[in-house]
Amino acid sequence: MQTDWVLLWLWTCWLGLCCPTEGQKRVRPGLGQECDGTFGGRCDTNLTCLPDDVYDTNEAGSGVCRPATLAPGCIPCSEVKCPRGKRTCRTTRVTDPCGCCSDCARQRGQVCGGPHWERGYCDWGLTCALFLGQERAMPPQTGVCKVLPGRRPDALADPLCPWVWGCNVRVGNCDCYGVQTCHGYFSYHSLEDCRKSLWEFQYYIPGEDEPDKEKTCWEKSCEVEEGQCMCYWRICNSHIPLVSKEACEDQLRRGKCYNVSCPEVPLPSCPSDSFLSEPYTPPDHCCPLLPAACTCNFETCPSKPPRCPPGQYAHRLTRGNGRPGTCCRRYLCVPRQSQPGTEKRDEEED
Q: Strands 163-170 and 173-180, how do they pair?
C-alpha cells in the first residue's frame, strides 16, 4: 500500500503538480535564452519568443527570446485604448495583429483594419481587403472582410499576427509549440496547465463534483441603474427575465441614442459581381461612421477561362480591376483567327 502512494507521488511530480519551493520557482528566460511551449513561450519584459529560424515555419517547437518588435502599423500597447468589446461572440474571438486588444472576429462584409487595427480583424478564411481593388488593407487603411482571389489565409498561421505559444492535447499527450496567429488556437497556455488537465481527466470520478439539486439555485442578472449596468446574484426566478451583461449594455446604448436622429443615407444598388458591406458604427457612437458600400465578391469570379466549342477560343473582354461592375475578367467565345493577334495575347496574359 505504501508503495502505491510513493508511485502516485512520483507520478504527480512528473506532471509538474508538486508545489515548488521559492528557490525552485521558474524564472522567465532572458535575452538570448531558449523558450518554448513548456512555459507558454513567455520571455522576460520587452522580449518575445521567436523560433530559431523565423523563416522556417516547420521548426516552431522551440525558440529564443529576442527584443519585441512592433508589427507594421502598430504602436506600443501602452498607448492603445482598447474599445469596449462584447463579452460573448457569436463566432470566435481574435487578438489584433498588434497583440493589444481582443474582440469578436469580423465576418464577411464587416469593416476591419483602421489605425493600428482598431476596427477589428477578420475571422478564419477571410482577408481584410480594400473596398476597391484586389489588395489587402494595411493600417491605417480601413478595409472589409472578404475572400481575395488567389489568397486563402492559412487556418493555422498568419504572418501579420504575433507569435503565440501554448499546448494542445494530441493522442493523449501534451504537444507544445508556437505559431503566428490572431485566433485562440491553443487550449492551454503552458505545459503545466495541460498536464494538470490530463491528470484531472484521468482521475475524475463521475458524481463526486455533481451539484446538489436540492441546493438553492442562483443566477446572475443585470439592470440599468443611474446610467450604468449593475449585475447582482439572485435566486432563480422563471417569472422575471434574466438580463445578461451584454443585453444590459445594448439596452443602455439604445437609451443613450434614443433621441439621436441619424441622417438617412440611401443604400447603393450593387452590380451582380459585388455585394453590400455593413455600415460601421464605432463603440459608444449612435450613428454609423462609415456607410454601407459596394465591394467586389470575388467568389463569383471564374478561376479560369471558359471552355469554348471546337474552332473557338476564350477572348478576354475585360481584365477585371476589383471595382464593382468590373470585378472579374470577362470572356467571350469567338472563332479562331477572327481577330488577328488577340488570341496569342490572351493566352500569354491568362
A: antiparallel
DSSP 3-state assignment of 183? Answer: strand
Instruction: Enumerate the domain spans of the chain.
Output: 25-71+162-197, 219-251, 299-341
pLDDT in tens, 146-200: 998 876 656 567 888 888 888 888 888 888 888 888 887 788 887 888 888 888 7
**DSSP assignment letter at 293:** -
Reported for 284-291, long-range contacts at CB under 8 A and 24+ positions apart, including other chains, are: 284/84, 284/253, 286/253, 286/256, 286/257, 286/260, 286/262, 287/260, 287/262, 287/263, 288/262, 290/111, 290/142, 291/265
Rounded to whole angstroms, the Cα distance separating 309 from 148 reads 30
Q: How many CB atoms lie within 10 A of CB 211?
A: 7
Per-position DSSP letters for 80-146, written without gaps between them: -------SS-SS-EEE-TTSS-EEEPB-TT-EEE-GGGTT--B-TT-EEE-SSSSSB--TT-EEEEE
Cell of 45: 519584459
Rounded-to-integer distance, Cα 276 and Cα 108, Å:
10
